[in-house]
């Protein structure tokens, strides 16, 4: 066994010495068996949340109604969930209440896919009652037992299946895929935030285009915000070689394919409940990439976009043009790096300087003039030094140029 499991072994040992069972479960065991990078280590135990809290001095209640307690130990934190069955399901969403049980097998039985229903004890021994290891070897996503039952317990699992296609490059077992087609409509009941978490993992996965094909084939896309009836536009996305794009760039590509105007793009992202900051970043990427389709970057565009957006927008532009060459990203970033200023606060003059020189109170004229100076500095019309700018302004106004 290796990290991060090794550091978590004492957590399991402590639960065991208090008389309970405890195992590693979920994605960490799956990713370990796959030889992939392991994110969070999840632990399942026969101890109830109160019993867990009595054993560890530092805990946080993060999902006590679902039986999950966060244990803080030596700079690490571990989610410990009591073995449970999920009892009565309401409206195809996760149940409000769960029943705690003392039996590992029953806990594994209520999990979504066989590859996710494997437990590992503190010695590294695998407990795999549903043959998840074979599924992992065969790279197949198969529900534990009846797919319809599993999807009716929590319809989000259908999206999880598709995101695992993208992330792990697995395929979906026949019966599981049939149930996905049949039950896709149940996704209507699922909170957008939960759908978004899965969709974003799908957008970032290595096999994202195959996952999009499955969204189309199963009609799952019909139950995702803003994608209803957009089959042809989603198909357009499949024509691009987009593996190099990150999550935000993928959102921007999707917006491009959907051919939405600025206002509708914003509404689309809002409907997915994206944080406002990310919405703005995605829209900027799209804006500059579209501009790039028409012309080269101007120095002023580079300046207003900033390095992160330049990189993303140029990457998206290359994808839209089908150009497989990263040199232009480097070229424009390098041009950006050599700009004389990166933001207005770096201008050698301030609004107060100009008001004093002009002996004039502030107003819209001042904002316009500062923008004009920014342009002039960026175009090397004038050096970014106070005296030089003062002279330039004087010469400029003598020539009675506009905005001088
Ligand atoms: N709707 C869900 C969500 C989760 N699980 C179970 O809970 C585990 C942990 O869930 P989560 O951390 O959300 O997903 P992971 O499979 O661990 O994937 P990731 O690596 O992305 O965390 C899953 O492996 C699965 O056994 C489930 O049965 N049904
Ligand atoms: Mg996990």
From TrEMBL:
The keyword ATP-binding applies. InterPro entries: Bact_CCA-adding_enz_type3_sf (IPR050264), CCA-adding_enz_C (IPR032810), CCA-adding_enz_firmicutes (IPR023068), NT_sf (IPR043519), PolA_pol_head_dom (IPR002646), PolyA_RNA-bd (IPR032828). Keywords: ATP-binding, Magnesium, Metal-binding, Nucleotide-binding, Nucleotidyltransferase, RNA repair, RNA-binding, Transferase, tRNA processing. It comes from the Bacteria. Residues 170-229 form the tRNA nucleotidyltransferase/poly(A) polymerase RNA and SrmB- binding domain. CTP binds at residues 27, 30, 111, 154, 157, 160, 163. SUPFAM superfamilies: Nucleotidyltransferase (SSF81301), Poly A polymerase C-terminal region-like (SSF81891). Mg(2+) binds at residues 40, 42. Its EC number is 2.7.7.72. It catalyses: a tRNA precursor + 2 CTP + ATP = a tRNA with a 3' CCA end + 3 diphosphate; a tRNA with a 3' CCA end + 2 CTP + ATP = a tRNA with a 3' CCACCA end + 3 diphosphate. One of its GO terms (molecular function) is CCA tRNA nucleotidyltransferase activity. ATP binds at residues 27, 30, 111, 154, 157, 160, 163. One of its GO terms (biological process) is RNA repair. Residues 247-393 form the CCA-adding enzyme C-terminal domain. Residues 22-142 form the Poly A polymerase head domain. Its cofactor is Mg(2+). NCBIfam families: PRK13299.1. Catalyzes the addition and repair of the essential 3'-terminal CCA sequence in tRNAs without using a nucleic acid template. Adds these three nucleotides in the order of C, C, and A to the tRNA nucleotide-73, using CTP and ATP as substrates and producing inorganic pyrophosphate. tRNA 3'-terminal CCA addition is required both for tRNA processing and repair. Also involved in tRNA surveillance by mediating tandem CCA addition to generate a CCACCA at the 3' terminus of unstable tRNAs. While stable tRNAs receive only 3'-terminal CCA, unstable tRNAs are marked with CCACCA and rapidly degraded. Homodimer. A single active site specifically recognizes both ATP and CTP and is responsible for their addition. Belongs to the tRNA nucleotidyltransferase/poly(A) polymerase family. Bacterial CCA-adding enzyme type 3 subfamily. This is CCA-adding enzyme. The gene is cca.
């Amino acid at each position: 066994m290796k990290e991060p499991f090794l550091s978590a072994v004492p957590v399991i040992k402590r639960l065991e010495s208090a008389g309970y069972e405890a195992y590693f479960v979920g994605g960490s065991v799956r990713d370990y068996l796959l030889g992939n990078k392991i994110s969070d280590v999840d632990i399942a135990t026969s101890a109830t949340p109160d019993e867990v809290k009595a054993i560890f001095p530092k805990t946080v209640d993060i999902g006590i109604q679902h039986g999950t307690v966060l244990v803080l130990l030596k700079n690490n934190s571990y989610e410990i969930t009591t073995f449970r069955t999920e009892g009565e399901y309401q409206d195809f969403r996760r149940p409000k209440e769960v029943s705690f049980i003392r039996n590992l097998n029953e806990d594994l039985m209520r999990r979504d896919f066989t590859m996710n229903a494997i437990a590992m004890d503190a010695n590294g021994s695998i407990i795999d009652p549903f043959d998840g290891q074979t599924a992992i070897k065969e790279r197949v996503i198969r529900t534990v037992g009846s797919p319809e039952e599993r999807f009716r317990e929590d319809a989000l699992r259908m999206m999880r299946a598709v995101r695992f296609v993208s992330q792990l490059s697995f395929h979906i077992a026949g019966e599981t895929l049939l149930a996905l087609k049949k039950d896709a409509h149940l996704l209507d009941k699922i909170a957008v935030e939960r759908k978004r978490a899965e969709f974003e993992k799908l957008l970032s996965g290595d096999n994202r285009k195959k996952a999009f094909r499955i969204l189309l084939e199963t009609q799952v896309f019909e139950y995702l915000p803003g994608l209803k009836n957009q089959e042809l536009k989603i198909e357009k996305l499949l024509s691009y070689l987009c593996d190099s794009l990150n999550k935000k760039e993928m959102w921007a590509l999707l917006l491009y394919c959907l051919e939405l105007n600025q206002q509708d793009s914003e509404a689309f992202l809002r409907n997915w409940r994206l944080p406002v900051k990310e919405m703005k970043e995605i829209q900027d990427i799209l804006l500059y990439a579209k501009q790039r389709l028409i012309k080269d970057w101007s120095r002023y565009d580079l300046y207003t976009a900033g390095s992160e957006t330049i990189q993303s927008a140029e990457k998206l532009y290359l994808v839209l043009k089908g150009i497989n060459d990263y040199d232009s990203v480097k070229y424009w970033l390098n041009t950006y790096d050599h700009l004389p200023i990166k933001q207005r606060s770096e201008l050698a003059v301030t609004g107060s300087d100009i008001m004093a020189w002009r002996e004039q109170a502030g107003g819209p004229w001042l904002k316009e003039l500062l923008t004009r100076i920014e342009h002039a500095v960026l175009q090397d019309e004038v050096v970014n030094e106070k005296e030089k700018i003062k002279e330039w302004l004087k010469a400029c106004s003598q020539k009675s140029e506009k905005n001088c």
